[in-house]
TrEMBL record:
<dbReference type="Pfam" id="PF00239">
    <property type="entry name" value="Resolvase"/>
</dbReference>
<feature type="domain" description="Resolvase/invertase-type recombinase catalytic">
    <location>
        <begin position="5"/>
        <end position="147"/>
    </location>
</feature>
<dbReference type="InterPro" id="IPR050639">
    <property type="entry name" value="SSR_resolvase"/>
</dbReference>
<dbReference type="Pfam" id="PF13408">
    <property type="entry name" value="Zn_ribbon_recom"/>
</dbReference>
<dbReference type="InterPro" id="IPR036162">
    <property type="entry name" value="Resolvase-like_N_sf"/>
</dbReference>
<feature type="domain" description="Recombinase">
    <location>
        <begin position="155"/>
        <end position="309"/>
    </location>
</feature>
<dbReference type="InterPro" id="IPR006119">
    <property type="entry name" value="Resolv_N"/>
</dbReference>
<dbReference type="InterPro" id="IPR038109">
    <property type="entry name" value="DNA_bind_recomb_sf"/>
</dbReference>
<protein>
    <submittedName>
        <fullName>Recombinase family protein</fullName>
    </submittedName>
</protein>
<dbReference type="Pfam" id="PF07508">
    <property type="entry name" value="Recombinase"/>
</dbReference>
<dbReference type="InterPro" id="IPR011109">
    <property type="entry name" value="DNA_bind_recombinase_dom"/>
</dbReference>
<dbReference type="InterPro" id="IPR025827">
    <property type="entry name" value="Zn_ribbon_recom_dom"/>
</dbReference>
Length: 503
């Protein structure tokens, strides 16, 4: 152990005038070491809220390899601003007999009082981090309410120019005439009852029109059609968002049909924000809108109706739905009826904008027949003597993880029992250990679940075999379940078939 070296760790989250630089931190630490060789570990641009930092993790690995004798930092919070993470690091230092030194805070970690002072300091470091986080959130919320451009790339149809609002330098969206014409055409097309996403993406692809340097695809199109940044917001727009439960910052009188809007999630983030406008926050922006309100509202209501229909949609055309991909581009294949009622598979990328040559002529029923035959062959191979033994044998990884899970549960139970009549110091220690063990427990549960999903039991093999033997009489949903157990995906063209198996 005599050949162990000293280490300096330095961290800086962001470059600010009032923040100490990486270089300065290292100089302070070198002074503390008073010369001698050392290895430097530096993380720039990383927060102290967790330990997921590349050089910090390298330092941890070197400690566990027995290479480090002493770790020197400029300040305690350079290690972490999390109480739990800091406690874990202190335990690691003790385990591997590593001395820990803060060049600006002098504590003797070999004494109970020294360790208590360390913990008090890290508590205040975490409090500072959480206070800063709340200040940033409050500032964001306050500025968004006043119509500030809150960063990010300018949406297609605009570019940004610097302006001053309320004495603060910010940016304003300015209409790009050429791009704005494409935006208006997009909305006018979708406002027609019979126009689909595919019609619009194909049109722009055929015209060679790119959006931010890329071909227009359906998800991007849907996102643009939902965005109120483009609308010329008038009272109709105000009433629409009000009817949806949206928080509207500006008065109704401000909606004059000139300005676009910003839509923010607000403080209470909820799922399905694409569809649910309730509790989102609408603010009039300083820029001019592009799309007349009547056209924008027609598109928005059409989108909302389409989402209601799609949410209830279920695979009905083929039991291979969700598994079949284009053998050329990897996009999903969609089953489509032709005029005579026969179902064909079509590449969704081809349908979008013709940027893929497509999968050729594939009749859905014919592909199903071929895949079914391959499933029968695969299961027959799997059910050989070797295969039976493999299937019947319990996964040793699952068994090992289950044993560890029982051990962790037992340790948590013991620690909970020890809380009765415990003093404050013991309570603090036990709570930290329980939190640590609970984190490991969640990891184990997740790993076991993943391995269990991947594994096929002998009972499942028998069930699959029974289904394949009577395939014509098996229900559509059961066919889909069998496919999900056996197949990861099917890459197909009219000339090729490649099945990725789970067994």
């Amino acid at each position: 152990m005599n050949n162990r070296i000293d280490a300096i760790y330095a961290r800086q989250s962001v470059d600010k005038k009032d923040s100490i630089s990486i270089e300065s931190q290292i100089e302070f630490c070198k002074y503390e070491l008073k010369g001698g060789n050392c290895k430097e570990y530096t993380d720039k641009g990383y927060s102290g809220k967790n330990t997921d930092r590349p050089k910090f993790q390298e330092l941890v690995r070197d400690i566990k390899r027995g290479l480090i004798a002493k770790v020197v930092v400029y300040k305690l919070d350079r290690i972490s601003r999390s109480i739990l993470d800091f406690a874990n690091m202190m335990e690691l230092f003790q385990q591997y007999n590593v001395e820990f030194v803060s060049s600006t805070e002098k504590f003797d970690t070999s004494t109970p009082m020294g360790r208590a002072m360390l913990n008090i300091c890290i508590v205040f470091a975490q409090l500072e981090r959480e206070t800063i986080q709340k200040r940033v959130t409050d500032a964001y919320y306050s500025r968004s309410q006043r119509g500030f451009k809150m960063g990010g790339k300018a949406p297609y149809g605009f570019h940004t120019e610097p302006i001053k609002m309320d004495g603060i330098n910010t940016k304003k969206l300015v209409v790009n005439p050429d791009e704005a014409a494409n935006i208006r055409l997009m909305f006018e097309m979708y406002a027609q009852p019979t126009t689909s996403y595919g019609d619009i993406t194909r049109y722009f692809a055929e015209q060679g029109i790119l959006f931010n340097g890329k071909e227009l695809i359906r998800p991007t199109l849907a996102q643009m059609l939902r965005n109120p940044v483009y609308v010329q917001a008038d009272l109709d727009v105000y009433e629409f968002f009000k009817s949806q439960g949206t928080i509207i910052v500006n008065d109704a009188a401000d909606f004059t049909g000139m300005n676009g809007c910003y839509l923010y999630q607000g403080r209470d983030v909820k799922p399905s924000k694409k569809n649910d406008l309730k509790d989102q926050m609408l603010v009039l922006a300083p820029h001019e809108g592009i799309v007349p309100s009547d056209i924008w509202l027609t598109c928005r209501k059409k989108l909302m109706n389409n989402m209601k229909i799609q949410s209830a949609r279920k695979a009905t055309h083929t039991w291979l739905a969700g598994k079949i991909k284009c053998g050329n581009c990897g996009y999903a294949l969609m089953s489509i009826n032709n005029p005579v009622g026969k179902q064909y598979l079509r590449c969704t990328k081809r349908l979008d904008n013709k940027s893929c040559a497509g999968c050729g002529k594939i009749i859905t029923s014919e592909l199903e027949t071929v895949v079914y035959q391959q499933m029968v062959k695969k299961l027959a191979s799997y059910k050989t003597l070797t295969g039976r033994k493999k299937a019947a044998k319990a996964n040793p990884k699952i068994a090992a993880l289950q044993v560890e899970l029982l051990h962790v549960d037992s340790e948590i139970e013991k620690l909970v029992d020890s809380l009765t009549g415990a003093n404050n110091v013991l309570l603090s220690y036990v709570n930290v250990k329980i939190a640590e063990l609970d984190g490991r427990k969640q990891e184990l549960v997740k790993q076991i679940a993943e391995l269990t999903v991947e594994a096929i039991s002998p009972e499942q093999v028998s069930q699959i075999s029974g289904y394949l033997d009577t395939w014509d009489n098996v229900s559509f949903d059961d066919k889909r379940r069998v496919v999900d157990l056996m197949i990861t995906n099917v890459a197909a063209t009219s000339d090729s078939l490649n099945i990725t198996w789970k067994i």
